[in-house]
Each structure stands twice: as structure tokens, then as C-alpha cells.
Write a structure and sequence with these properties.
The protein has 249 residues and is α+β, with helices and mostly antiparallel strands. The protein has 7 helices and 9 strands; from the N terminus they run ααβααβαβαββββββα.
Length: 249
Amino acid sequence: MPEADPEPVHLRQSLFKRPAPPASVRRAEPEIRRAIAVPNRTPSLPPRPMPSGPIPAPRFGKSMRPSHDVYRELGVVPTSFTPYDRYMGDARQVLEETSSRNPATLAVACRLVEKGRKFRYVSRDPYRPDLPDTTAQRKSGDCKSKALWLYQQLNDPTALYVIGKAERGAKSSHAWLYWYYDERWWILDPTTRSTPVAVSSIASGRYVPYYSFGRYGAYRHGSTRLYGSEEDTPEVAARRVLFLRPKGK
């Protein structure tokens, strides 16, 4: 997945400068600034009510689960098949090894995203992410490798490794993380951004998720339109244009 083009000026200005932004956005921006300025401080954001309901059953056989179903807010459903399964072997091992011990704070997440953003953009395999140790040692990687490195560094079992599109209609796929902290979801994208961004602040048509992977299984997002007909098999679906090889490579 090639690196995204620089954002147009109107998109860069749209996150926290739109007229009358939601209250959650106005609260989030100063928290990000303070988290960066005071590394040892643990920010406390205003809580939001969570939807009730059962959590998805884990696919990886892990007994530890989130205390409540934080994934419902993202509109995902568990799935036993994705077009990326054949490329996710090593990545899934990294996802399974996360634990709830010493998960990252918002201040730590800010520093990690900034560090990953400084890694050079290098794609060594168009489909499989590098292991986090390789990304760290070489200080380089593409979007999927940087996102997997960041997932390991966060050490939060509720985080999700996401494959989708940076913009609706983009020709190439993109990878980032969804991270749940202080009762809200954040986008962590060390490929194109230097700080976390609240999901509620993202403009429509940006960061369109297709599939997510985490310690507890794989999920399909509502924006996924993979099967064109009931006759489509997983093999046919896997050849669709979710993971396009860049032209000339």
C-alpha cells in the first residue's frame, strides 16, 4: 500500500476548524496538546456512555476479554473470513501476544505515533506487513508495517489493526489502528499523521474501514461491500480490488 499523498489544505484544516465542531472534538484537541507537552501526565477525558450488549466471541482462544463490548460503537461484526487471511499469519501472532499489562496512556500514544511517523516509508511486500522488530531496527516500513509496530508498542488488547481506504474511492488500501481510550475511539495513523485523531472528528469519506483484526478475532465493518452476489466464493472475493498492487511494481 503506497504512502498517501499529502492532504489538501482544506482537509488539513477540517479536523478541528470546522464551524461549530462537536463538543467532544473541542475537548479532545487541548487534551492532545497537553499530553504532548507533559509526557508524564495521564490525560482524563470526559466519559461517554457505552452501548450495552454481549462482546464478540474470541477466535484466538484467549480467555481474557474487554469488560464490555467497545467494538459495537464501530459498527463491526465478527467474521470467519477476510481476503487478507493468507497474509496475516505473522501479524496475527503479534496481535495475540498483547496483554492488558501496562497499556499505553494518551501521552505515550502521542509519542509513539510521532516516532512511527518519522520512520521512512519503505514497502518490502505489498501484502504482508514486516514484523515490528524489523520495522524498529530499520526505522522504516509502509503503512501496514508501521501500524503493526504501533500495535505492539501500545500493548492494548482492545486495539484494532485496520485495513481500509484513507479516502473513499482511493485506488490503494491503507492500514491504521483504532484505539479505545477514556471512553472514545481514536485513529492512530503513523504513516500520515503525527498525533492521534478522535474518530468523531473525521470528515465523512475519510478513513473508510473494511476489516479489523485484534487479539479477540477479525471483524467486518459496515462499509465493506465484498460480495457482489451469493455465488461469490471466498476465493473470488479475495481477488477483488481491496489490496491493489501499485502500478509499475
